[in-house]
Amino acid sequence: VSNDLYPNASSPLERKDSGVPYVRQGLKVESYNDFDPLKHVIVGIADNQHIPEQCPASNEKIPADSPMRGGKAGRRTQETIDRANECLNGFAKILENRGIIVDRPGAVDWHQRVTTPDFTISSGFGCMPPRDCLLTMGKSILMAPMSFRSRYFEYLAYVDLLREYFESDPECLIEQAPRPRLSDDSFRMDYVAAYEFLSDEETMARSLRKEYSTKETDILFDAADVMRLGKDIFVQHGLTTNLAGIRWIKRKYEPQGYRVHTLSFEDNHPIHIDATFCPLRPGLMLLNPHRPLFKGQREIFEKNDWQIVEAVSPAWDNPPPLCYSSTWLSMNTLILDHKTVCVEATETGQMEQFDKLGFEVIPVDLRDAYAFGGGLHCATADVWREGTREDYFP
Ligand code: DAV
């Protein structure tokens, strides 16, 4: 795929004749949480992004009154792509100016139909947001088994980078979760059909019963449903992560000394934990006041003297046009170390709250990239944070 079409993608790797990428000296893969000093990160790009046709998993997330529900599928306009890239490139620059290494995803042709023996859909999605796709667990990076059909091949945007990480850090392991089928059997198709006629009360009642359009047929999770806190891993059960997915995470990582916990929130569209319950520094969590934790789930935090503060209201009443996420991207921030946080520049209330909590706040202009897949945390994926695997919940 030509890089001319994807000017913001990472440039093709330099490789030996055998195809092996050259080693990038000093490169390290390691991260155990979202708040230790950030040294190396991937920032998404908006190049050539599409709005795919609806699929059974995406339908449940898209607001009923959104044009994306109907015939909106197609390439996003070049003007919105350019503006989103301006934001993402500016964010990357801010990080680089602070000495953080920034990589960008590689070029993939998202225009092509995505077809497997089990399904077909109009196009791919894009390589925003990397956080959904890549799960960095210690010295390994795992490509997640995502539930949107349009995102089935999204990992391809990271294959070359990950190959380079593998070659450059002798301890780094690149892994892939079992691939789902995403056939009609993977979804509650009757629910999908009925969805747009359900009231908020009805969708909330279903969500509280833990009934989603995704069934337990496939092993499914998005990496953004996984919150890493040293030895403890908290996974949200919701639209994008099913119980089989959580069982797989448990079986994979518990033998490595991790403890895996399931979390649920009173939320009628529970997708991704990073605009719902966010670690800020050791001992401090930020909770979305509209999405309380299920009963009994605060205990592990409170017993271990972690404070849970409620996030202030977002600055905006509505998300930007053609956005999949809610206004609560206000609390979707990127923490650079225990005292420094990047916050979207229009979220003045959220910035003030961080200031009062003792953080240096770096405003980042990113709202015009929200529609491409989320906020500052979504738009990034950890490669290396300094620090070790701590036991915060002994
Ligand atoms: O509030 O719409 C967005 C999370 C994106 N990773 C929300 C969840």
From TrEMBL:
Q: Does the keyword DNA repair apply?
A: no
Q: Where is the composition biased (Polar residues)?
A: 1-11
Which GO terms label this protein's molecular function in UniProt?
glycine amidinotransferase activity; protein serine/threonine kinase activity
GO biological process terms on file: creatine biosynthetic process
- Location of the active site: 222, 272, 378
Q: Which regions span the lipid bilayer? A: none
The region called Disordered is annotated at 1-18, 54-75
Which keywords does this chain's UniProt record carry? Kinase, Serine/threonine-protein kinase, Transferase
- Signal sequence residues: none
Q: Does the keyword Kinase apply?
A: yes
The protein's matches in SUPFAM superfamilies, at most eight in alphabetical order, are given as: Pentein (SSF55909)
Entry similarity comment: Belongs to the amidinotransferase family.
In Swiss-Prot or TrEMBL terms, this protein is called: Serine/threonine protein kinase
Q: What is the lineage of its organism?
A: Bacteria, Pseudomonadati, Pseudomonadota, Gammaproteobacteria, Vibrionales
